[in-house]
Design brief:
Blueprint: H1 5-15, H2 20-24, H3 28-36, E1 47-50, E2 56-58, H4 70-88, H5 91-94, H6 96-105, H7 107-119, H8 171-198, H9 202-210, E3 217-219, E4 222-224, H10 227-236, H11 243-247, H12 270-289, H13 294-302, H14 305-313, H15 317-320, H16 341-357, H17 359-365, H18 369-380, H19 404-417, H20 424-453
Antiparallel strand pairs: 1-2, 3-4
Helix pairs in contact: 3-4, 3-7, 4-8, 7-8, 7-10, 8-12, 10-12, 12-16, 13-16, 14-16, 16-17, 16-18, 16-19, 17-19
């Protein structure tokens, strides 16, 4: 009996919850081993899932096609995603002692292994764990998310799911869209957990850099050797795609399209929203991973991430069309109505963190006047880039504490990185920070005097 589209989508949404309870009842190391293991379609046909002793368990002959069934693979991705969300789905679970326990059990390694497997293909590495086509391929070599259509023969469903074969010709499109959405959701969850684990934990940030892939691999034209490279690859995946291009990416059609053909009319799609959330979570993970960690910051710079983020932040038409002068529009960052506003602020925060611990980043960013204004605005709001020579009020009220990374960029600009040197806006930022320090010192001295009088 065939299924109509609504029935099919409903049944697909229920399948992933069937075995999650059994997985979530295991001990933490076993759960994380399950999360980081090869995907179902990457396991040899004669074997099933990985056991806790890291060996493969033989599968019965009747189940031989399970790893080739697109429905089974979609369910596998969703079950893994549910496990990640169950154990690492909130900041409370990833901070403090909980975050330490997750790291010691292998959470950082498992999350990075998942992200690596989603984007690396067998042609990039000799590892048999990788697939011929990536679930999340690069936008430069293949249409985003269309490549996996070549992975599966949609006529070849396992016995458990054969009844889902629909007489509706849209069955193929629906199933492949659901597979693509499942892969995106899994990546989004893993990046969100990695972001939270990296927040406030130097050991977790060090674990990101220390992770190594199962085998040497390349993404686009660069080698992936550690977790920093994996995160950079997820930014590189959208290189040269405008924010709107990402948001308007069409859902999958069961035929190959060029990347240009995938840009739909100016209507956000479910797929585009997922892609934007994936990039936003990536930028959040980079921002937290780069906090006060010099070796991580240097590796991000060496791998080319800074140039990717600069392009990403200056891809807005308003900033791009501004002449390279000492005048800027009232705002360089997108307004609250733009869905990519959060991603922009995370990208700016990442660059400021990188500049704090990496002089090369500070010099690179300090050589671009327009970009310095953008970072000042990201730090202190639009009013921070306004200078009124007639205003005599020297109050520091309304501006936050100057970030050491932004200070490093301004000092680099004043020490030769920026042609023409610092202007009034930049000098105002540094001067107000000096005033703030003097006020803070005065208040501290007054506090100590009062404390001494009461003794």
């Amino acid at each position: 009996v065939g299924h109509d589209s609504a029935d099919l989508l409903q049944e697909l949404s229920q399948l992933a919850m069937e075995e999650v309870g059994n997985v979530c009842g295991c001990d933490l190391p076993s759960v994380l081993l399950r999360v980081g293991s090869p995907f179902l379609f990457q396991v040899p046909c004669d074997y099933e899932s990985i056991r806790t002793n890291n060996e493969y368990e033989p599968r019965r002959d009747s189940d031989v096609s399970r790893n080739e069934c697109v429905i089974c693979n979609m369910v596998d991705l969703r079950q893994r995603n549910n496990v990640v969300r169950h154990y690492m789905g909130s900041m409370a679970q990833c901070r403090g002692g909980g975050g330490d326990a997750l790291r010691e059990a292998g959470a950082v390694n498992a999350l990075l292994s998942v992200l690596w497997r989603l984007i690396v293909t067998k042609s990039d590495t000799n590892n048999s764990d990788c697939s011929p086509v990536a679930l999340l391929p690069t936008t430069k070599s293949e249409p985003i998310l269309n490549g996996p259509a070549m992975m599966f023969d949609l006529e070849n469903l396992c016995n458990n799911h054969l009844h889902l074969r629909s007489i509706d010709p849209s069955f193929d499109v629906i199933v492949m869209n659901e597979l693509g959405a499942s892969a995106l959701d899994h990546a989004i969850s893993c990046l969100g957990s990695l972001r939270d684990l990296s927040c406030g934990s130097a050991l977790n940030r060090a674990a990101v850099l220390a992770w190594t892939p199962p085998s040497p691999a390349r993404y686009d034209t660069q080698c992936i050797e550690n977790g920093v490279h994996v995160l950079s690859a997820y930014v590189n995946r959208y290189d040269k795609f405008e924010w709107e291009d990402i948001l308007y990416l069409k859902e999958r059609e069961f035929n190959m399209m060029s990347p240009a053909d995938e840009i739909d009319s100016k209507t956000p799609t479910d797929r585009g929203k997922r892609e934007l959330r994936l990039l936003t979570n990536t930028l959040g993970a980079i921002r937290n991973t780069s906090h006060s960690t010099p070796d991580v910051c240097q590796d991000f710079f060496n791998y080319g991430l800074v140039d990717l983020l600069v392009w990403r932040l200056t891809s807005d038409d308003t900033l791009r069309n501004t002449q390279s002068t000492k005048t800027m529009p009232s705002s360089s960052l997108p307004g609250a109505s733009r869905p990519w506003r959060e991603a922009c602020f995370r990208a700016a925060g990442s660059l400021i963190n990188l500049a704090e611990k990496c002089p090369d980043v500070a010099y690179r960013l300090g050589s671009n006047r327009r970009f310095i204004y953008l970072l000042i605005e990201a730090w202190g709001g639009a009013r921070a880039v306004v200078f009124d020579p007639n205003k005599t009020n020297k109050s520091t009220r309304g501006l936050p504490l100057l970030h050491l990374g932004l200070a490093a960029i301004l000092y680099a600009a004043g020490n030769g990185a920026l042609e023409g040197g610092l202007d009034d806006v930049m000098m105002q930022v540094l001067e107000k920070e000096k005033m703030r320090k003097r006020v803070a010192q005065t208040k501290e001295e007054e506090r100590k005097c009062r404390q001494a009088k009461h003794k």
